[in-house]
Amino acid sequence: MDQSRPTPDAQAIDWVIRQRDPAFDDWDAFTLWLEADTRHAEAYDVAAVADADAADLPAQPVARAVARPSRRIWLAGGAAAAAALVGIVGYGAVDRSPDLVRVATAAGERRTLTLADGSSIALNGDTRIAIDRDRPRFAALEQGEAMFRVVHDPADPFTVTVGGATVVDVGTVFDIVREAGSTRVAVSEGAVVYNPDAQNAHVAAGRQLQADDADATPRITAIVPALVGGWRTGQLVYDGAPLSTVVADIRRGTGTRITLASGLADRPFRGALLTGGDKGRIAGELAALTGLRATRRQDEWHLTRGGP
Amino acid sequence: MTAGDAQGIEAVLLANRDRLVRFLEARGAGDAAEDVFQELWMKLATHPTGPVGQPLSYLYRAANNLMLDRYRSLRQAALRDHAWADPDGAQDRDDAAIAQSPVTSVERTLIAREELARADAAVTALGPRAATCFRRFRLDGISQKAIAAELGISLSTVESDLRKAYGALVELRRQIDAV
Q1: Which of A25, A122, B19, B88 is 20 to 30 A from A148 via CA?
Q2: Looking at the domain that runs over B104-178, which CATH code has it been given?
């Protein structure tokens, strides 16, 4: 803070900016600041709400130019999403062994790691990743989903190991999901090479590779690059993904468990969901968009055929 | 609910009760700080967390988020009361019916969408550099230092761009709340 007696709003903004760092722990000083002036708490509330609502902003203004099918229903943004964000959120566990740093997030929790070279890895919920301090251009995704924004260096490509395979960057931005014996790699900018020593599959921007452990031949399909990693801003957008994938994404991103009646797992889903809002709502919205019926069983929701 | 039963994060919560209650008081809970503390306890008990790296910091964040939740619901209620009390809006309709009809989710969706568009416009209006700084920081979670390196600008420029962007969003929030 500078010498010119910043206003309570300006001071509150500085606190909000500092607290965005997951390592922030100066809560005693923050308490003292709140106690110093009765206007501080209110100024902080306004700044913190502005910050929470900003989570729903489009990543780049250009993203809005991407065609969004009009049939998609965009659910309440700001308030609802922030309500979820301001629930109990955690900053995951960090397990430091000598060289390997292992980071884990709980379902419904998100976290971004920034590496020494400026590359960043955004972790979705229920995700485990290991990075090696001696190898800054390496990460091992053990489970869950991560979006990689890699500073590209042709002489020293960034490498991710996942499910026994290796993904090598030939560009910059890609998202990897590892779940239930299957790996998906979606590329939004640049390109990656999947298993250069085996299948050597080149995945360009706008493409997604899916490799099942049981099947040696990965499949490559087209995707909308701007939607890759949409989970970071709480948006899940699908164009024909199987419902089993949708409910897995919801569980990872929000912690809400949804089970499917038999025969529904492969049913294709088209539409958009926001992971904000209260936990039960996303199940209800998914039911409404699919014409299925959602019933609650203790902590989880069950989707079945049949009207409301 | 005794310290003997508590494990892990709940033990940390109990051990730091006084600090957290003091924080909640200052954070705006005032006399209700004890109640909010109980609420925090309940949330932790009903939403078990995985292992947490810095438990005390985690608890402060959870307490802080809880207060933000409270602030939001109080504000929503105030806005609703305000809308119901509006004589112009009630003129041609049955007052009781209006008082009973909650703001529909469709209306809320529209309001949220409009607010989001205004926030996006406010950030964009700062110019490409400041807007990029803000989006990289807030949406992509990139550190200020990394943004400075990426854009080839000084750390203090990043800092001042972020302050500007947050300032614009706070200004917008105040305008929306003042309606």
Answers
A1: A25
A2: 1.10.10.10
